[in-house]
Amino acid sequence: MRLLLVAAVSTFSLVAQATVIVPGATWTDTSGTPIQAHGAGILKVARSTFYWFGEDKASNTTLFHAVSCYTSTDLLTWTRQNNALTPIAGTMISGSNIVERPKVLFNKMNNEYVMWFHSDTSNYGAAMVGVATAKTPCGPYTYKASWNPLGAESRDESVFQDDDAAQTSYLLYASDNNQNFKISRLDANYYNVTAQVNVLTASTLEAPGIVKRNGQYYLFASHTSGWDPNPNRWFVASSISSAFSAQADLAPEAVRTYYSQNAFDLPLASGNAIYMGDRWRSDFLGTSTYIWLPLTWASGSPQLIWADVWSLNLAAGTWTIANGTTYEAENGVLSGSAVLASDSSFSGGKAVGFLGNGGSVTITVQGIGAAQWVSLYIANGDSTWRNTTVSVNGGAPVVVQQPDTGGGHVILSVPVKLNLKSGSNTITLGAGQSNFAADLDKIIVYTAS
Ligand SMILES: *[C@@H]1O[C@H](CO)[C@@H](O)[C@H](O)[C@H]1NC(C)=O
Ligand SMILES: *[C@@H]1O[C@H](CO)[C@@H](O)[C@H](O)[C@H]1NC(C)=O
Ligand SMILES: *[C@@H]1O[C@H](CO)[C@@H](O)[C@H](O)[C@H]1NC(C)=O
Ligand SMILES: *[C@@H]1O[C@H](CO)[C@@H](O)[C@H](O)[C@H]1NC(C)=O
């Protein structure tokens, strides 16, 4: 049997320009290559161009390969430019060290772009920040130094530029063995930190970002669980140096931030924002995907909205969440060892379990004669990823990766793009594989692409 990887299938989308954001899919750049920009930092330049800096992890290892630089005017179509930063042998940014979470600020006083990043040795023992500078957004950047800011450890970090006349900026960082989360002011050049202005003692936070909204400073961060996800939190303070509120969830705790970790939070014209997270795949780091979601203050507090497929009106700072057609797995035709599973967490109270390893389910859906996004709503109570074959109308199967969802009754959705003909199609999941797939609650077929 011929197995195609999902990444290969997504080349269908090269024909037509994507107009939707599909969290968790393999996103490709304008050359059709998967986007390698993990631990993202986004910089908007001249009101129209977005620069996305990130870790190129195509090697699947944690070691420094490159800080990539991509450009876009719509946040959907990304063109890879020259690498912004590459290894320099014999320095803290050699190819045997760590460079993570690159964030770039524009320093208007010096007319210079300044990149901050987590700079470390391969065992994360040095816990430094690094700085590099350039005269153009993608550089390449000139490496300046790596050091322990104010003499203390710094691992996961980000930067925040305030909107005062001087554009005072700050380093946000996990310090003191990731126990204390600190905020320190940068000097006027953005080359160093000058003073610690805040600390969340014993907060065990990492993966930070700050959005300023109506004069309030909203801090977003995860807790520390390695590459595994945890419920990311939000905090608010009335100034950068005043006490932050107690932690609160960004999303229902059980879904662990929809299996993602915060990387960057991009303010929108509407006063809302986009949450930009990483869905890390620790055993194949380069296949880690991006979870970008609407971050809304509609309730008065910041909350993530899960969206399988969504689009953005950048000028207005608003979004549209696509609607699809739902097909319950329990209404499909079960085959082999597949069984119905009952639980109130499943829509309709039922899911199909024991898929793969001899069990499969076939669901009949309506298509429009196009490559269409289909979201698989799954529960995987293991501590490791599973996968499932997906075959349309009896054709060659593709394999869809299925993260552990944090419990056998916790449901997440994973996307796959499938070529559906106009009218009735069958979608068979779990056939022809010797490993177990996740339990399947339902699938949703979308027409937006
Ligand atoms: C990284 O892992 C993916 C998934 O297994 C694989 O397709 C890819 O070839 C790997 N890359 C390298 C450089 O080994
Ligand atoms: C940053 O400033 C401190 C003094 O506060 C100094 O010791 C350190 O060398 C500086 N680091 C860099 C990279 O300039
Ligand atoms: C999706 O359905 C909801 C509920 O019916 C509706 O409010 C919303 O406008 C629909 N969205 C789109 C993009 O059609
Ligand atoms: C699917 O999962 C099984 C069991 O974990 C693994 O052996 C296999 O390599 C995976 N296949 C793909 C294509 O990821």
UniProtKB/TrEMBL annotation:
PROSITE patterns: CBM6. Keywords: Glycosidase, Hydrolase, Signal. Residues 325-446 form the CBM6 domain. GO terms for molecular function: carbohydrate binding; hydrolase activity, hydrolyzing O-glycosyl compounds. One of its GO terms (biological process) is carbohydrate metabolic process. SUPFAM superfamilies: Arabinanase/levansucrase/invertase (SSF75005), Galactose-binding domain-like (SSF49785). Residues 1-18 form the signal peptide. InterPro entries: CBM6, Galactose-bd-like_sf, Glyco_hydro_43, Glyco_hydro_beta-prop_sf. Belongs to the glycosyl hydrolase 43 family. This is Galactan 1,3-beta-galactosidase. It comes from Mycena pura. The lineage of its organism: Eukaryota, Fungi, Dikarya, Basidiomycota, Agaricomycotina.
